[in-house]
Design goal:
The complex is a heterodimer of chains A (331) and B (328). Helices cover 33% and strands 22% of the residues of chain A. Chain A is an alpha/beta fold. In chain A, the strands form 2 sheets. An 8-stranded mixed sheet of chain A has the order 6-7-8-3-9-10-12-11, sandwiched between helices. In chain A, helix 7 packs parallel to helix 8. Chain A starts with 5 loop residues before the first strand and ends with a helix. Chain B has a domain at 87-285: MetI-like (MetI-like fold). Chain B contains 13 helices and 2 strands, in the order H-H-H-H-H-H-H-E-E-H-H-H-H-H-H. In chain B, strands 1-2 form a two-stranded antiparallel ribbon. In chain B, a hairpin with a 3-residue loop joins strand 1 (170-172) and strand 2. In chain B, helix 5 packs parallel to helix 12. The chains are: A alpha/beta (331), B mainly alpha (328). The complex binds adenosine-5'-triphosphate, iron/sulfur cluster and magnesium ion. Magnesium ion is lined by residues 48-49, 180 of chain A.
């Protein structure tokens, strides 16, 4: 297997506060392979955005990476000096944020923002950068790109603005794109188009994607693998098919129960009874144990580590610990 | 755009009319204009005659109309105290005030924005802390005290700068007397300009700082960072420009206050401007000068307001009604 584009190893993110240190990400580990789309799901506050921010080096102080490492094509990037990390942002890792209405600077035209971004990373003349910008806009599906490029962001609709945002994130052809709920703020009617554009272009360029979303439907259609985050810990990670169709981790099973269907339109993952613990009140053992339907003694004492299973699946649940399985089979 | 300007112009005219009414009321209700104009020995009959001749017996609306008509041509009558046309008096002193206000305004803006940006970007450094603390003092000390302190330190103790007056002045054209072209003129300007501008400077600085911190938290700044733009581009290209949009308005309006507040500074430094003229006029109940000064200040505010609106328009594309608006 070739080196993954991104490797996150035992990532710990902490927020020092007056009343002790909050651990918002606790030993999160995953890889993203070349050209792969990794979906990342979890309830609000699970730490999805923080994972993205940590990777791209934009955690807001006092938040900080307190442990583990992040590797981009095998090279550590979590301890780079700021200036080096800046050159990676945009150039090697692109980021798309949730709200296209606020992601663009209202005082600059789309052309100005695109050209600035392109020229920050690639040695091009103003004219060539502009050509490239127009081509990009055209590629993300802005009609009459050559003309519209000189418009200000407020001249575009939400969906069109998110296309512009994608063009900006991809302007310097990054190898990895982190998209943090890129369609949550958009009209339902354009969500699928935006995901398609993002997916297509990344596929074309062989870029990998980390797609953060609440929408299991989008994950099912778009991602190759999916990571399930719970209370700052990885509950499960594996190929989308397996995780969705043969959900095994009790939390994932609960999540799947909350996928909206045609008859029922719950759009948030809220159908598991109870709520995710606050960071200062994460229970001992498995973080999910107060809500788990299959909880047993060990869950309340020891924290389950990710356990490798068949088909490249990994799961943090004592139910799938070899020893326990043995016990279960014997009963 | 045209409609916007027209609307603003109409508003300005209404404001000016309101101020004119106040100025006019001064004539009617502050002191007896006849008594102010003539001596003790003039008889009652003669006084009645003058009253009639001056139109003081006309209906209110006629008098007000005449007042506006004359004011519009710059005719505010004769100063009771100095027996000179009011307009002439004011014009001869206006350059002194405008030069002082302009220099203070520029100082206040330049240092206000500079310190504001610095303290926003270097939050928590001891230099920022010091600037913020000193600025608090700047806001809370009254202007005249600052003026007196500056005079005491730099004019009396150190003897670096003159303590009063405008220094040597020369004419530009046939009526603008400037102090900017002579060394003593420039030296004389420093202390009053600092005194007058200090308060506005701290205001602008605090505004810029607050606004900048706000902007630095926005999504588009996060996105700009996520695209790998340099700190310089993010801070000065993106954040500062957005910070300045609201700051321009306030600063512009501060220019009006600077001119209005120059009264105190001019008095402390015996600066021969319109503010000092106004103070003397109040002491002598010189109503025509007071009325003219009021109108002048109102005019300054109105004009500045207009300019600020236009600037705002130029800076913020969202306000512009251009071709693309029809599209979306
Ligand atoms: N400045 C901070 N201080 C303390 N805790 C913080 C801070 N910022 C974020 N957190 C915590 O980190 C956790 C993860 O936040 P994150 O934004 O990554 O959630 P998320 O999974 O992206 O949720 P959402 O779906 O709502 O976007 C949250 O529990 C939040 O309370
Ligand atoms: S470890 Fe125990 S509590 Fe946690 S998910 Fe598995 S069964 Fe439930
Ligand atoms: Mg989030």
């Amino acid at each position: 297997m070739s080196t993954p584009i991104l490797s996150v190893r035992d990532l710990v993110v902490e927020f020092p506060t007056r009343r002790g240190t909050l651990r918002a990400l606790d030993k999160v580990s995953f890889d993203i392979a070349e050209g792969e789309v990794l979906g990342m799901v979890g309830e609000s506050g699970a730490g999805k955005s923080l994972t993205g921010a940590a990777i791209i080096g934009l955690l807001e102080p006092p938040g900080r990476v307190a442990g583990g490492e992040i590797l981009l094509r095998g090279e550590r990037i979590d301890n780079l000096p700021p200036e080096k990390m800046r050159r990676i942002r945009g150039r090697r890792i692109g980021m798309v944020f949730q709200d296209p209405l606020t992601s663009l600077n209202p005082l600059y035209t789309v052309a100005e923002q695109l050209i600035e971004t392109i020229r920050t990373h690639i040695d091009l003349s103003e004219k060539d950068a502009r050509k490239r910008a127009v081509a990009l806009l055209d590629r993300v599906g802005i009609p009459a790109a050559a003309r519209r490029i000189d418009d200000y962001p407020h001249h575009f609709s939400g969906g069109m603005r998110q296309r512009v945002v994608i063009a900006l994130a991809l302007a310097a052809e990054p190898e990895l794109v982190i998209a943090d709920e890129p369609t949550t703020a958009l009209d339902v009617s354009v969500q699928a188009q935006i995901i398609d554009v993002l997916k297509e272009i990344c596929a074309e360029r062989g870029a990998s994607v980390m797609l953060i979303t609440h929408d299991m439907g989008v994950i099912a259609e778009t991602a190759d693998r999916v990571a399930v985050l719970y209370a700052g810990r990885l509950a499960e990670i594996g190929p989308v098919r397996d995780v969705i169709q043969r959900a095994e981790h009790p939390y994932t099973v609960g999540l799947m129960g909350s996928i909206p269907t045609l008859t029922q339109t719950a759009d948030r993952l809220t159908q598991i009874p109870g709520s995710m613990p606050r960071l200062n009140a994460i229970p001992q053992g498995c973080a999910f144990n107060p809500r788990c339907t299959r909880v047993f003694d060990r869950c309340k004492v020891d924290r389950p580590e990710l356990i490798a299973r068949a088909g490249g699946r990994q799961m943090a649940c004592w139910l799938y610990d070899a020893a326990v399985q043995g016990e279960a089979e014997n009963v | 755009m045209i409609a916007f300007i027209l609307r603003r112009l109409v508003q300005s005219v209404i404001v000016m009319l309101a101020v004119a009414l106040v100025s006019f009321a001064l004539f009617r209700f502050v002191g007896d204009p006849i008594a102010s104009m003539v001596g003790q020995e003039v008889t009652l009959a003669e006084r009645a005659e003058i009253r009639e001749a001056l139109g003081l017996n006309d209906p209110f609306i006629v008098q007000f109309w005449n007042f506006i008509a004359r004011a519009a041509t710059g005719d505010f009558g004769i100063s009771y105290r100095l027996q000179q046309p009011v307009m002439e008096l004011i014009l001869s002193r206006l350059p002194a005030t405008l030069e002082l206000a302009l220099v203070s305004g520029i100082l206040a803006f330049a240092f206000g924005v500079g310190f504001g940006v610095y303290t926003a970007l270097r939050r928590g450094s001891w230099v920022s802390g010091t600037i913020m603390t000193v600025s608090l003092i700047g806001v809370s000390l009254p202007t005249f005290l600052i003026g007196v302190l500056l005079i005491w330190v730099f004019a009396v103790e150190l003897q670096w700068l003159p303590s009063f007056g405008r220094g040597e002045t020369v004419y530009i054209g046939n009526w603008w007397r400037t102090g900017l072209l002579t060394e003593s003129g420039r030296a004389s300007l420093i202390l009053p300009a600092i005194t007058l501008g200090l308060y506005q400077m701290t205001l602008i600085m605090r505004l810029v700082r607050a606004e900048m911190l706000e902007v630095l938290r926005t999504d588009y700044i996060k996105f700009a960072r996520a695209r790998g733009l340099s700190n310089r581009a993010v801070h000065f290209g993106h954040a500062l420009k957005n910070t300045l949009v609201p700051v321009i308005t306030i600063t512009g309006l501060q220019m009006g206050s600077i001119i209005a507040f120059s009264i105190i500074t001019e008095t402390v430094f015996q600066w021969p401007g319109v503010g000092a003229l106004f103070i003397r006029s109040v002491q002598f109940v010189d109503v025509p000068v007071m009325a003219a000064y009021l109108m002048l200040i109102a005019l300054v505010f109105v004009v500045i307001n207009l300019i600020v609106d236009l600037l705002y328009y130029a800076v913020d594309p969202r306000l512009r009604v251009d071709r693309a608006n029809a599209k979306s």
